[in-house]
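CO-FOLDING WORKSHEET

Operator: S.A.
Ligand of interest: zinc ion
Run index: 415
Mode: holo prediction, single chain
Checklist:
[x] sequence pasted
[x] SMILES validated
[ ] output reviewed
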Amino acid sequence: MRLPKFSMGIGDRFAHQGVAQLDAVIEAGRQGAVVAPVWNKSHREHSIVGSSPVDVRHEADDAVQSRGWRGPYFVDADHIGLGTVDAFIESSDFFTLDVADSIGNKAQPAAIEAFVQANRKLLGSLSVPGIDEPLEISQDLLQATAEKFLLAVAEAGRIYRHIAAAKGEGNFVTEVSMDETEQPQTPVEMLLILAAVAAEGIPAQTIAPRFTGRFNKGVEYVGDVQRFTQEFEADLAVIDFAVQRFGLPENLKLSVHSGSDKFSIYGPIGRAIKRFDAGVHLKTAGTTWLEELIGLAAAGGDGLAIAKSVYRSAHGRFDELCGPYASVIDINREQLPLPHEVDRWDQTAFTSALRHDRSCPAYNQNLRQLLHVGYKVAAELGAQYTDALDKHSLIVAENVGQNILERHIRPLFID
Ligand SMILES: [Zn+2]
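OUTPUT RECEIVED:
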């Protein structure tokens, strides 16, 4: 099973927007951007929403059937580990092996020694086509990198083999993810990680590193765009090199776990993948839920009332909701409007505070991040929430589709 050159993770917390998301992908295709949709959902999201992996499979299959989509599509068991993968095996055909928690734990000395020996030929000045300066790899760096990452890659190997034993090799797409960690990985580390991935026999088609800068949920990239661009291009060069050198799948590409809406780096990513003739997988995940709220608010009446009540609850349960996401949000509580103020807002006031349009003076990224992690509140509303989605499905779908097409696919794959 082969992941195409361009693909996009389109998470959908409440499994109601599959058709709207697919419509955006179809429209992108008409405009020249062929992108494979990947419906991804993590164990964390499932447990907060109270859904199960088979629901995502049904959503994807139903959307594909209702639109007669003939292109490839996938269902991604996002951020799974050995402890969580089993529930996903049947319904998923894309697995994001999350081994970030094992980074920094040392493998057995013999395993480290064997890795260092096997990669001695990389020592010294290593010219990698596409990177101006040769990579300098000393014995110490090789040793330290093995100590830092080898155990994590071995863990990825265990998860991969566990899935392969159940599904059969070649019947699913494998991603290795190391993004949910504090320290970005350098291009040299990426090279050595890929050497280890190949040695473990993991046919990774995507790899998700932790990039430089902050990738807060649902809001803009915070960091040095130029530095990001350099790092991203070096990673592309390293991947090309590693594919040749270590015999990894030739469609191996970077997966950008964007946390959604990193508009300032879409341009640089788009230009870099063109220059390197590389593919990319972009995970955007959670903003579909925010577009649902925008759609409900824009509908006014009971839709707007639900959006306000979600905000009121989320505001009152700040610590509980933000806790699991503490490392990927940055909310200034002083700048959150009080619920009784929000209660006085009309449709436009609510949608313009929430919609990610930084040119709009009313846009409030603190409110946006709080609502981003506040989907638990909507999940608890159960049918009250999903019935409202059904009732206002047209205006919700319009916001969901526009967001994917205009804010994500267009800047990255069309412009
Ligand atoms: Zn991630």
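REVIEW:
The first strand starts at residue 6 and ends at 9.
The pocket of zinc ion is lined by residues 79, 177, 179-180, 208, 257 (CB under 6 Å).
[x] output reviewed
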